[in-house]
Design brief:
Blueprint (H helix, E strand, L loop, with lengths): L6 H21 L10 E7 L11 H16 L2 E6 L15 H11 L5 E5 L3 E3 L6 H5 L4 H4 L6 E6 L2 E6 L21 E6 L3 E10 L2 H10 L2 H4 L6 H12 L1 H6 E3 L2 H4 L6 H5 L13 H4 L10 E3 L9 H12 L5 H12 L5 E4 L2 E4 L7
Parallel strand pairs: 1-2, 1-3, 7-9
Antiparallel strand pairs: 3-8, 4-10, 5-6, 7-8, 11-12
Length: about 350
């Protein structure tokens, strides 16, 4: 028997499929590349800048958004002012509700990559999803037994996790990368640094984000705010340690070198290829490393302006087609979120500060 459909039923079916496609297109990651389940996150408030540099925010946008465009990632530009944390003494804590909001705004995303405003992607040809791959990530993790450092309140902690606790496995070189939930770095001076880290969607992340903004933590006497609170969770809760992978700093969160240090060193080659153990474990950026983080550069007046200009000139220049593609997406309002009366939602892609 031949099936017959009325014009109304056909129209309803077509409209249903168009609606599904529209929803899919607004929630999917940018097409292209090999890591379409990654969201690159940048956040600042109304006055966020470094020193007196002109067009600072626009340069940061060009740097991050063109990278996302090149590798097929989503890019989120969030207004810190729209994400207050009750009783928080500083805006550092706002990154936690922003992470919550990013998971909500991009339901198809698996990984969030948080990168502070005072950082630059120096090697845009190096895909972030390669760092996450099971063939690359194990070699970037700190060796088992490496002390996990940090300052918690007035007392300095230098705790060496037992082999089974540093990242949850005895041999980091044969680690199942799929089991790690948070990738973070530590420096040799102050310990855990959350200027650049990756967080995987899941129940573990939901629990950690909830605990991270516990009122006792937010109002606690931490030296480095939310960083020390995260360190406390790592030190006190095995379930947190089991999900954390501490990677070599230069792989994800290198600090800037001065000219003398750079001239005396050797350039890197992406993910620390061919480097000796000591240099690979170092803090300082070498050409070929993905990111440089200008953490604390404002301690000397004018130092941020000079250092930022120097690193901007040294970076691997973004491809123009990626810059144009990023600008087009910003013009269509695809990038950026804030909190309104209806809760978290995507806003216009322009700067919303």
């Amino acid at each position: 028997m031949l099936l017959s459909f009325s014009p109304l039923r056909i129209l309803c079916a077509v409209l249903t499929w168009l609606t599904i496609l529209a929803l899919w297109s607004t929630t999917r990651s940018i097409s292209g590349g090999g890591g379409s389940d990654i969201v690159v996150i940048l956040a600042s408030n109304d006055g966020g800048s470094i020193g007196k540099l002109p067009d600072f925010k626009e340069k940061v946008f060009r740097n991050r958004a063109s990278y996302a465009q090149r590798h097929g990632y989503d890019f989120l530009w969030a207004n810190i002012s729209a994400f207050p944390v009750p009783d928080a003494p500083t805006a550092h804590w706002s990154k936690i509700p922003i992470l919550h909001a990013a998971f909500a705004a991009y339901p198809s995303a698996t990984w969030l990559w948080w990168l502070d405003l005072d950082a630059l992607i120096m090697t845009p040809s190096l895909p972030f999803h390669e760092l996450l791959s099971p063939t690359t990530l194990p070699s970037l993790l700190l060796p088992a037994g490496t002390p996990i450092r940090g300052i918690v309140g007035p007392t300095e902690h230098n705790v060496s996790f037992p082999t089974r606790l540093i990242s949850g496995w005895e041999d980091t070189r044969t680690l199942d990368a799929a089991a790690l939930q948070l990738l973070v770095t530590q420096d040799e001076m102050f310990g855990i640094n959350t200027g650049s880290f990756a967080l995987r969607r899941g129940a573990w992340a939901d629990w950690v984000l909830e605990m991270w903004t516990d009122g006792l933590f937010v109002t606690g006497d931490w030296v480095f705010k939310e960083q020390d609170a995260l360190l406390h969770l790592m030190l006190q809760h095995e379930v947190v340690r089991q999900g954390v992978g501490v990677v070599r700093q230069r792989a994800l969160n290198a600090y800037p070198t001065d000219r003398e240090e750079r001239e005396g060193g050797v350039d890197g080659r992406g993910w620390l290829e061919g480097k000796g153990e000591e240099e690979a474990r170092g803090m300082m950026w070498r050409r070929g490393d993905l990111v440089v983080h200008l953490a604390g550069c404002g301690t000397v007046e004018g130092s941020c302006d000079e250092l930022w200009a120097e690193k901007w000139a040294e970076r691997e220049v973004e491809r123009e087609e990626d810059v144009r593609g990023a600008e087009e997406k910003r013009g269509r309002g695809e990038w950026g979120i804030e909190v309104g009366r209806e809760g978290v939602g995507r806003g216009r892609g322009r700067w919303r500060g």
